[in-house]
Amino acid sequence: MRKKGSAGSDAYIRHGVAGMAIAIACMAAAPAWAQDTGSAQPEVSQPQAAEQDDAQAALTSTPAAGEAESGAAQDIVVTGSRITTSGFNAPTPTTMIDAGAIAANAQPNVFTTIAQLPSLQGSTGTSTGTFSTSSGQQGLSSFSLRGVGAIRTLTLLDGQRVVGANVTGVPDISLFPQLLIKRVDVVNGGASASYGSDAVGGVVNFITDTRFEGFKGNVQGGITTYGDNEQGLIQLAAGKSFLGDRLHVVASGEFAKEAGVSGDGFGTDLAGGRDWFRQSTLINRNVFNDGSPQYVYLDYAQPYNYTKYGLITAGPLQGIAFDQSGSPFEFQYGSNGVPGRDAAGTVAGCYPGFCIGGDLSGNVDAGRSLQSGIQRLGGYGRVGFDFSPNNEIYVSANIAQVKTNNVPVAGANRPNLTIECANPFVPVSIRSACAAAGITNFQFGTSNAAVGDAKVHTDRRQYRFVVGAKGRQSVLGSDWSYDAYYEHGRNYTDIDVSNVLLSRRFNQAINATTLNGAIVCADPIARANGCQPFNVFGGNPSQAALDYVLPENGPFQRTRQTQDVVSLNFSGSPFSLWAGPVSFAFGGEYRHEFYKVRADAYGAGIENTPNDAAYPVDPVLLPGGNNWYAGNYKNGKGAYSVKEAFVEVDVPILDSETLGRANINGAGRVTDYSTSGTVWAWKLGGTWDLPVDGFRLRGVTSRDVRAPNLSELFAAPVTTTLPNFFDPFNNQNVLVIQNTIGNTNLTPEIARNTTAGIAFANSSWLPGLSVSVDYYHIKITDVISSLGAQDIVNLCFLGVRPETCGVFDLNNPNGPNYVNVQAFNLASIVTEGVDIEASYRWQQPLGLPGSFTARVLATNIRKFVTDTGLPNTIPNDSAGVNIGSTPDWKWLAQQTYETDRFSILLQERWFSDGVLGNQYIACTPGSCPTSTNNRPTIDKNFVPGSFYMDVGGTYNVTDAVTAYFKVDNLFNKDPEPSPYFVNPALYDVLGRTFRAGVRFQF
After folding, report:
1. Which residues share a beta bridge with 905?
2. What is the SS3 assignment for 10?
3. Which domains does the chain have, with CATH numbers?
4. Which of 618, 572, 352 is nearest to 473 (CA)?
């Protein structure tokens, strides 16, 4: 076991900056990791290192299923496989990050450290999803491998599934116990045959230190160069063995808080004085064949259908705006725009919908949060008892809470209001102008600055309990490892949105009149039900009016998810062939997933929540719901169960000095879903250690699956009325009720995943150097994708997708016409690229004490093609699209110099220049071809990449106490704005960040 003072624990204190994603020991004279993957291996004591020379990269420090720490022989647990036999080499590329590397990056959340790996693209975190009100994913930290989405990446804790923190089924990494993590394995490739559904892009497996002894902690603080996103972190962990080293108890707790960064309201000023925001907009000219580009990309775009405190947008009074006091003034259009004062609200000299420059005070994007505020509180405990040598029973509990908050946008933009000239809140001068112009009303737009900003609060609480047994027994003369567990997890997610308009109340409140000398709401029904007149001119509505349109009980959603898993796995080597022992793994699993969601009555509908006393019946509102400006959550529930069995075999076929050493690895899994039936997954691959010293070839191909999740199967229904829906069967417009629902007829997505590569390490003629290059190709068919109501009907009418014909009726004699909007297995995704890893360690560089280590990890995405499956569309390649998450190149590099007393780390993060979209044709005015839907023209199709440098260091104050610092984005590199505000999936939106702290271990 690893005791205080051993190499494993010393790595935490002494080698805290040993390189992001690197365990420094893996670059020693014989780095075992490179034999298989080009990935790192945990620091181990010298006796362990000798045992692990043949280990695959993704190996634990607890070798057997029963774990070496309980005295078992040192078999290897490989995340990309269920084989646990010593000497096994899995063909799937795997990257490992150990506790020292996690400490080196000095992040308040381990999620950020893992998400920086180049193979992870499109992961979500506190800087993504901040512009959303209703998605339910604000502040949710989940991984996405290969850019195929978090729902296609399987995240495990000690090789076991974790209950989802969202109805899509993805867990929240912020809820994991973090200080006891000793290693994270990232499997870059399909692993459904080994682990089941969702492992299409790969697997991220967190391994905890179940035999930690001693007491350790970490205290950290941080702040940005702008004086915001103040951060604090306290982590403590303890472990002790009892009863002659048979009873092992570990526990950890942590509290972390990041204040987040909200916007600065309206206009173009961001929080903290950040000056990179330019209100960039991609403007559609709606002109296709005049020789100029259809789309133009411009900075400081000003919408001309609303402003901060109100603007008359059409008719003879167009161009009159109002200040905070409600006084009218002449609005300053950009582009030297001149209002047309016509019914259409055109502005001469401007683009459709936008002018450039002018009065930008009403723009709402600057109010968005750059990063959600987050607070984490978590506890973890595990008790294990060795009931015999090499055999353990255990129970663990993980109870954690994560709270986040974000501002999705400033105000509550309402651009298309009709105001009566007789409204008593209309200034006298405007009423006179109405009379002179012979009009009784006018069109009006406002950012609604007076109502303030909406704020989304999430509260996720996880209760996860595991009881299990693992170990090793001799059966018929050979050792067999077993691992059995039962897991029960519950996740409760509360979402509350504050300061959100009830749109229909707002419409009634702004329609004011005078009655008996008092200003009141014009509608008597609304007035009888509490309507208070709202002065929409300027920023001074009464408190009574605000209370009426912004009720104290805003939109909310309450979700409960449960997961129950029973799993049993065996692994052993019952016999040998000419080249070595043949290894087998087999097992089975049962899983049950359930969710139930309850929403507020005004969003879900009074009829669906009849006992919700907080939301009294109001005839002004729609009884079916959808009454909020944003945040119209719905009620729903659903469940499914999964039964599966697998077998895996590893057969060595070569073991000679002349030809080298090779093995073939294969696996198959049969899975039965209660909703979609039976599906198969398989893999076939192998490795070959060439007779050339240090070289290994590897390759694997697999059939992987992702089953539809609870959201896709049982989405809470949403009903919308479509008054002018086109019926292609009868060539007429009809009234249709659109029901957005789940689809229980969905089938699993099927993926074909292939990787092939070469690794170099362990060379006697070039010690310390390790390099690996792997090519990957993924094709996913039957991708679950959502369709609009018109697409559903059109696909049936054209005979392209007959499965859509059964979900609508446009000539229903027994009730309203309807279209059930559902997801279908229509689309496909094809992506391919190359992963590169290289590292070199130099002992006593230039005669200096200590060591120098350099490492680089890079991913090149050659293509990422999505085909929607819809007629008259062409596949879209998003490789190199820098408004997404799949740049052409992305790399991470580190250089570390360390001694027994101190260490210094430099880290570089870079991704390549890209485009707005590969579908665009860039051209200049006078030279553009005709623009089409599939190949539109644009004046600028370029989005710069970015380069960030980080620096960190440690100093060992004593043998038990280490002080450290970290500066991220050292040169305070600004993000590149985009037509969609900014892309936090790629760019650093906060700027330079300082962190410092103290780690200790006794």
Report:
1. 896, 952
2. helix
3. 87-263+370-409+456-497+556-599+635-1001 (2.40.170.20), 301-362+413-446+503-549 (no CATH)
4. 572
**Confidence band of 873 (pLDDT split at 50, 70, 90):** confident
Q: How far apart are CA 118 and CA 457, in angstroms?
A: 31
Task: Count the neighbouring beta carbons within 10 Å of the beta carbon of residue 644.
Answer: 22
Q: Return the structure tokens found at 137.
A: 């994913």
Q: State how far the Cα of 512 lies from the Cα of 535, in Å rounded to an integer.
A: 8
Contact 620, 701 (CB under 8 A): no
Is residue 208 classed exposed, middle or buried when 0-12, 13-18 and 19+ CB atoms within 10 A define those classes? Answer: buried
Which tokens is 881 given? 């699209």
Is-contact 613 551, C-beta < 8 A?
Answer: no
For residues 978 and 942, give the distance between their C-alpha atoms in angstroms, rounded to a whole number.
Answer: 10
Q: Give the Cα separation of 760 and 769 in Å (integer).
A: 8
Please give the structure tokens belonging to residue 460.
């996720």
One-letter-per-residue 3-state SS of 94-107: EEEEEHHHHHHHCC
Residue 839 CA to residue 835 CA, distance in Å, equals: 14
Burial class from Cβ neighbours inside 10 Å (0-12, 13-18, 19+) for residue 268 reads middle
- DSSP H or E run through 554: none
Calpha distance 65→84 (Å, rounded):
7
User: Token digits for 300?
Assistant: 């400081």
How many CA within 13 A on the CB side of residue 408?
Answer: 22
The tokens describing 666, both together, are: 């294969």
How far is CA 717 from each of CA 333, 607, 743, 818, rounded to the nearest angstrom? 43, 13, 11, 13
Buried b (16+ CB within 10 A) or exposed e, 41-71: bbbbeeebbebbebbbbbbbbbbbbbbbbbe
Residue with tokens 């057969």: 651
Q: Rounded to 10 degrees, what is the CA torsion of 101, 104, 109, 115?
A: -60
Walk across the sheet containing 732-740 and list its strands.
Answer: 718-727, 732-740, 818-821, 808-809
| CB neighbour list of residue 920: distance below 8 Å, 6 or more residues apart | 295, 935, 936, 937, 938, 941
Structure tokens at 800: 């392209």
Contacting residues for 979 by C-beta, under 8 A, at least 6 apart:
280, 281, 282, 297, 883, 916
CA dihedral 99, 104, 109, 114 (to 10 degrees): -70
- Neighbouring-strand partners of residue 484: 469, 568
* pLDDT value, residue 21: 33
Question: What SS3 state is found at 609?
Answer: coil
Per-residue pLDDT of 206-229, as tens digits, reads 999 999 999 999 999 999 999 999
Calpha distance 428→474 (Å, rounded): 95
Confidence of residue 87 (pLDDT cuts 50, 70, 90): low
Convert the pLDDT of each residue in 10-51 to its tens digit.
333 333 333 333 332 332 322 222 233 333 332 322 223 222
Whether pLDDT at 719 is above 90: no
Quick: pLDDT tens for 733-757: 888 888 888 999 999 999 999 999 9
**What pLDDT does residue 85 have?**
63
Residue with tokens 């009379």: 435
Q: Please give the single-letter amino acid code of residue 100.
A: G
Paired tokens of 550? 């912004």
User: Residues with Cβ < 8 Å from 352, sequence gap 6 or more?
Assistant: 283, 284, 285, 286
Q: Which two structure tokens, joined as six digits, stand for 69?
A: 């720490």
d(CA 307, CA 328): 12
Q: How confident is the model at residue 56, as a pLDDT?
A: 30
CB count in 10 Å sphere of residue 723: 8
Residues 601, 607, 610, 616: what is their CA dihedral angle, to the nearest 10 degrees? Answer: 50
User: Pick from 247, 7, 14: which is nearest to 851 by CA?
Assistant: 14
Six-digit token string for 721: 């009325």
Encoding tokens for residue 624? 């079916």
| Interatomic CA distance for residues 341 and 316, integer angstroms | 5
DSSP, residue by residue, 872-909 = T---EE-TTBTTTTB-SEEEEEEEEEE-SSEEEEEEEE
